[in-house]
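Q: Entry one of two.
A:
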Amino acid sequence: MKPAHGPEAQEVANAASWAAQPERSNAWALRLMSVIALAAGRRLARVVLHLIAVYYVLFSPRQRRASRRYVERVLGRSGNWIDGYRHVLCFASTVLDRVYLLREQTDWLDLRISGSQHVDDCLAHGQGAILMGAHIGSFEALRATGRDRPDLDITMLMFPDNARLINEALAAIAPNAKPQIIALGRPEAMLQVRDKLASGGLVGVLADRTLPVESVRANTLWLPFFGKPAPFSDAPFRLAELLRQRIIFMVALYAGGPVYDARFEPLADFSERLRDPAQREARVLAAMQAYVAKLEALCRESPYNWFNFHDYWHEDTPA
């Protein structure tokens, strides 16, 4: 574990140039899938997904290289064309299903939920909580767990450019979808988060990407991830520590066909105020390490559900 500095700090700074690319690609893919989904229906659209997956494996060398490196780490063997195809197909399947989930067309959905009592416990005590996830599985399937729960008030934290891209895509696909989003990097963002949690709301964040953060309190730590250090921001964890919140890990793994496996598990508890700065730092680090360990375990369990198709370990960054 080490904070980013020197060449590594430059690597993190370089992240600004590609940070918006995954969301821009996701927004484009969502629009494409919406056309296919609404024109063909889910059964026929899933057939078309195979052609789309083949196309991306053949003609997206950067994403193919990133996928191969990840697959080799998670499976412990050399990656091949079939692995890349299965990886992209899994991602395309969740994007397709996202269209139907956003439009609340869920008759086909087999959603299996475990651990929801941890969220209920926070709500029962009038407390909010930070729901922390990653770019693994489907966030829209997670949102579907609350479709019959009007008491669930979930707001997502996003960077402004990403929030704009997502909102534009949603407006085109599901005009009635009104996701609650707080844009980070603005002076009022922290107050909005504090007020949402104080009112018993839930704040969600995907913490597996390192993006430029203006706060001097935020650091990028390089933590072991599949045997090689990878950058993780401590900003979401420091937010939980500052606001004295519990963190619940959330994920909805795509299990094939209509099946999604949604899980909620306690990750860290910052509700008790610690006066010793060293103890606070140790608790933040322990929470980050628990997050990375959970993420690695989930990737091993369901390897093709990981959707970071970029140079995650910064292996292509010049020394």
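Q: Entry two of two.
A:
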Amino acid sequence: MKARTVLLIGIGVLLISLALLNPATRVNANPVTILTASVNPSWKIKTIDSNGDVGNTLSLALQPGTDKPYISYYDFTNKDLKLAFPVSGGGDCGPGNTWSCNSLKFTNKEDFGYLSSIAFDQQGDWGIVYDDLSLGSNNFRGMPAVNTTEQFWANIDDALHNFPAHASNSFHYDGNGIGHVAFIALDNLFNPYLRYASYVGIGGNCGINNSWQCDTIVKVSFLGMIGYAALVFENNLPYIVYRDVNNHLAIAANLGGFSGNCGPGNSWHCEMVDATVQVGGFLSTNIDSQNFGIAYIDATTHSLRYADMVSSGGNCSQVWLHWNCITIDDVGSQTQTNNGATIDQRNGEPLIAYNDLNDQSNNILKVAYPQAGGNCGPKADGKYTWRCEVVDNGGGTKNVGEFASLAVGPTGDATIAYYDASDGALKLAYHAGNQVFLPFVHK
């Protein structure tokens, strides 16, 4: 079992200790822990939607209680937001029309649906935050909080100012079922900032009928006119991973009233996680009772990296949160706006899905996970400590794996949604035994 004690030191004064995770001992001289988690190598691939150029900038979430995968994604052909999920009958996509892909069909003249993020509340209701490229804003569709009125195509923040830039959205519900989104947007001088919006119902400063509260946290950097942020909650406190102004990996946390160094009234604490590399592409973070991990891409060496929070020491940050950072795999030189990694926790250990262009001419989808005597990652006692394996090789010619989104169910089965750039299709990879879904009962 592993221990994480979160310490916040401001102006030389200890402000807070957060016991995040359970006790363990790490050797600082060797940040790699030999783990024995295994992943079923038997993956099955489905094409979910191939009607036009679809599947761009997607997001995957599993519905609580049923483990059904729901995928929000961008229809580049029609400039629309789409939602795909399995159905028992009357489907219009997927193998044998066993999926629905047109439930969000909406006649409009706007270009919306780019860089979406979907999440479920505890009652099994979903919400999606996405970009409206015509209006230069990010919008919401779905339930903003439990026991509220559904919002349809409702604006959240106009901070893009009709500039050709995109707000990367990361949407989640907290433990009380309230919706929150972290995103990157521009100020009036077109400087990119990390922004954070929470649904408040009334009395906010943004969104339809001022139902959202939007705050600026810290100045960041853009890459290819896209900003990147990843939001996660622990003990009902938000943590946001982002690229700082120097393109380094950084984290912002709101610690519930304790003074920090960023955000409105210094109500947030911002600090660097990994200052040793330039970060490119999409970021991903996840936390459970044993691990707080971040998956990201080193834009200079074109490698997959993993940052793991530890109780003390750490080889890449030892300020407030302590982190060990390791290189896992060479992913090759890619378009930095499209590549990236997605992480979840499986049986208390990290599982990372990512696209790779290193050992072949086409882009492929791979996964990485800790395994003693593996084939990638750092070595301990002369042996690799991670396993990197191919999920979809694109038949040796097709470019697959961009915009991958990973989710692991309570039984440990993994599902990955991703974009087939060669066919312009939305695809899904899953373990052979985890596509039997339970009926959903609304509590």
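A: Comment on entry two: Residues 4-431 form a domain with the Methylamine Dehydrogenase; Chain H fold (CATH 2.130.10.10). Residues 1-40, 437-443 have pLDDT under 50 and may be disordered.
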